[in-house]
Amino acid sequence: MKGKRLLVLLSLVAIAALAAGLAAGVGSAGESRANPTGKSYKIFFLPKFIGIGVFTENGKGGKEAGKELGDTVVYNGPTEPVGAKQVPFIESAVRQGFDAIVISAPDANAVAPALLRARARGVKVVSYDGDVRPDAREIFVSPPLASDIGAFQVEWLGSQIGYKGEFAILSATPTAANQNTWIKWMKVALKKPKYRNMKLVKIAYGNDKPVDSARETQALLQAYPNLKGIIAPTTVGISAAAQVLSQEGACGKVALTGLGLPNEMRKFVKKGCARKFGLWNERDFGYLAVYVAHHVLDGTITGKIGETFKAGRLGTRQVVNCAGVKPCVVLGKPLVFTPQNIDKFNF
Fold this sequence. Notes:
The chain is built from ten helices and 15 strands. By secondary structure, it is an alpha/beta fold. Helix 2 (about 55-70) crosses helix 10, helix 5 (about 145-160) packs across helix 6 (about 175-190) and helix 7 (about 210-225) crosses helix 8.
C-alpha cells in the first residue's frame, strides 16, 4: 500500500515537472521571437541630458525594449546639454562592462574621443536623435529624415503666415548636429518659389534651457517688431517661446511652430499660441534605438545598406542611407499636432 502511495506521489511530481517544462518552453518560444540568440546584453542609454519630457520618454521606450529582449537598459546622463559632460558617463559605462552605448549628442565632436576609446574596448555605439561623428559609432537611428523635418517645419510656419514675412529660428545649441542639419534643410526648402516672400532674419540659440530660450524669444520680439513667426526645432525652445508669446499677448500675432511634446504644448495650443507643430513618438524612438543596439550586438545588423531586422511592435525595419548619413535606421514620418487633434495624444 505504501509502495502504491509512493508511486502515485512520484507520478504527480513527474507531471508537475513536465508542466513546468512545457511552461518554460512556451516562455522560451515567446522570447525567441524577440531575441533569437537568447543572449542578454547591458545597454547604457545616454540622452543629451536628463530631466525633460522628450528624453524621459526615450528612456521609457528603451527600457520597454530591453524588457522584451531580456537586456538590461540603464538610463542616465548629465543635467545640461553639454557634450563634455557626457564623457564621464561614457567612461563609467565602459568601466562597468556595458556592451553598448545608445547616445544622443549635443556636440558630435566633443564625445567622439571617448566613444572611440569605448569602441576600442569592444563597446558598440549607436547614436540616435543627435548624431556623433561617423567614425565614433556603428549606426545612427534617425527620427524622420532630416530633409523632411526641415521642409515640414518651413511649411508648417508658411501655412500660418500666408507664406510671407520675417521669421526667426530658435534652436538648441550651436553644436547640436541634429538641429544644424534640420536648419540646413530649412534653408534648402526656403529656396523654393513658394517661400520666396519669407525672410529668415536670425538664428538664435537657447541652449536647450528654458530660461535661455525664453530670453532669446524676448530678444527676437524686441529686435524684430515685424516678426511674423518663430520656428523652434527643440521641445525646450518651443515651449519656452510659447510661454513668452502668452505672457506678451503675442499669441496669434507671431506664429509659432517647430518640434514639441503635445502634453507640454496643449495649453498653449488651446490659447492660440501654436496652431501647428510636430514631433514623433519619442517612446517609440527610444524603443527602436535599443532594438538596433541589441541587433548590432548579436550580429544581425552589421551596417550594410539593405539589411532588415525585427524591431518588436514596430515591425520589420531596414538599414538605409539617410540623405548621406549612413548606415541609418529611420523611425518614420512625423506626427502633426493641431487644435483639432492635440487631445488625442498623451506624451
